[in-house]
Write a structure and sequence with these properties.
433 residues, mainly alpha, two-stranded antiparallel ribbon, binds zinc ion
């Protein structure tokens, strides 16, 4: 577009609401308002924007951010980038800004009760999974319709009413006590949003974050008060690994939750990391966290799920010295938890489980074990009722010895592990866990 044409825009150049504040508008809210003003559908605008961005001079790397780039182009409003965590794009994966139109919505029932189309907007902070409450009313954010219990999709377009039953999503809100961690992370997120919603801020370079993590990693490696397990946990959390001499990045971008966990571990605020990364890395580690039984990671939004996960893994690793623990992927799959999510929310559980597994099965035998475990679990699924009978166990035993390349003793342990897992799986499926 030439400079003379630049005052003409395809879509109306609406001002973004809530700039330079923790309540800055979300991209979907902006799209919804554009749709209302222009008479198009929100979905139509998203698609149009994505294709405009791809045909433009700067094709975006990520499909989701193409919508943001396209809207920016079609409205001529640079500040549209503030409706996302664009500033942090080189640091964070799957920023909510990139979430597709069918992502699940959360809202504050009190904000909805006070809604006025002329002046209200949906803030970006409702999309951030790390935030549990409305910053204005302090009540919990909700995600189910109070009338029909239905989930809400971002694409619905009408923010105040349920997409299924059409009843209002307004309510009085639920108030509960907040943990210290929650208060701290609310404060961090508010500061980050203020920063990211200032249109004059530029994108943070990826190197800055990587340098911080590497410097932090070096401190951790050289600090011999760490146990090797704790050291491993922290390095995995940082997304770096040490080859003995150098610190190498094992990942580039991470979730906001993990970023907050790293800050909390180092005892710094998120803005220290953004504005003064060098100093942030060399600050001494907070005294005390290593004394606790686990790293003080937050409950986050999957509190209930992860406490069940903790219970399941504790049960699988408790006593039973001669029974192998199942490969962690089986538990993750059964409980519908991704490995990344687990690392972000319960890195300590993951590390403890993996170290137990490595103690039990030598790395070289690991593949054989996993294969045998998998086929034993499959066999049980085919042949056994919920609690397998002795005769079935004996048959499984001879099947395992015949088909597996493990020793007889290892076979026994594998079969016992598969049996325990089979029984627990029944409990997980009936949600008695
Ligand atoms: Zn509210
Ligand atoms: Zn409803």
């Amino acid at each position: 577009m030439s400079p003379e044409q630049s005052h003409w825009t395809v879509l109306p150049p609406l001002a973004v609401r809530g700039l330079r504040s923790p309540l800055v508008e979300s991209l979907q809210s902006y799209v919804n308002r554009l749709a209302r003003v222009s008479g198009a559908s929100p979905d139509g605008i998203r698609k149009w924007a994505a294709s405009a961005a791809h045909s433009g001079d700067e094709p975006d790397r990520y499909a989701g951010s193409a919508v943001r780039a396209g809207i920016q182009q079609l409205t001529g409003m640079l500040e549209v980038r503030c409706t996302t965590l664009w500033v942090m794009e080189n640091w964070l994966v799957a920023a909510p800004s990139h979430a597709p139109a069918d992502r699940l919505r959360r809202w504050c029932p009190r904000c909805i009760a006070e809604w006025d189309d002329e002046v209200s907007w949906e803030p970006l902070c409702w999309d951030l999974g790390v935030l549990m409450r409305c910053p204005v009313h302090q009540c919990e954010l909700e995600s189910l319709c109070p009338t029909c219990g239905g989930i809400q999709r971002a694409r619905n377009g009408r923010p105040t009413h349920c997409g299924s039953c059409r009843q209002s999503l307004a309510g009085k809100g639920i108030f509960s006590t907040r943990s210290h961690y929650e208060i701290w992370s609310e404060h961090q997120v508010a500061q980050l949003l203020m920063y990211c919603s200032d249109p004059s801020e530029e994108q943070l370079p990826a190197e800055q974050f990587r340098d911080f993590r590497e410097a932090f990693g070096r401190e951790v490696v050289s600090d011999d008060t760490f146990t090797s397990l704790d050291r491993q946990t922290v390095l995995e959390l940082l997304g770096v690994r040490c080859d003995g001499v150098r610190m190498l990045p094992s990942r580039n971008r991470m979730t906001l939750q993990r970023l907050l966990n790293i800050c909390s571990l180092q005892g710094i605020g998120i803005m220290d990391l953004v504005l003064r990364p060098r100093e942030a890395a060399s600050r001494p580690l907070v005294v005390g966290w290593r004394d606790s039984s686990s790293i003080p990671l937050p409950p986050a939004s999957h509190d209930a799920l992860f406490s069940s996960f903790r219970r399941v893994t504790e049960r699988m690793t408790a006593d039973h010295r001669n029974v192998y623990v199942p490969p962690i992927d089986f538990i993750l799959k059964a409980m519908r938890i991704s490995r990344t999510m687990l690392m972000d929310v319960a890195a300590d559980v993951y590390a403890r489980y993996e170290s137990k597994r490595k103690d039990q099965v030598l790395e070289v035998a690991q593949l054989h074990y996993e294969k045998s475990f998998r086929s034993a679990v499959w066999w049980l699924g085919q042949h056994a009722r919920s609690i397998p009978k002795e005769v079935e166990v004996a048959r499984l035993m001879s099947y395992a010895v015949a088909t597996s390349s493990l020793s007889k003793e290892s076979c026994e342990r594998t079969v016992m592990a598969a049996l325990r897992w089979h029984n627990l799986l029944g409990e997980i499926r009936t949600r008695s866990y």
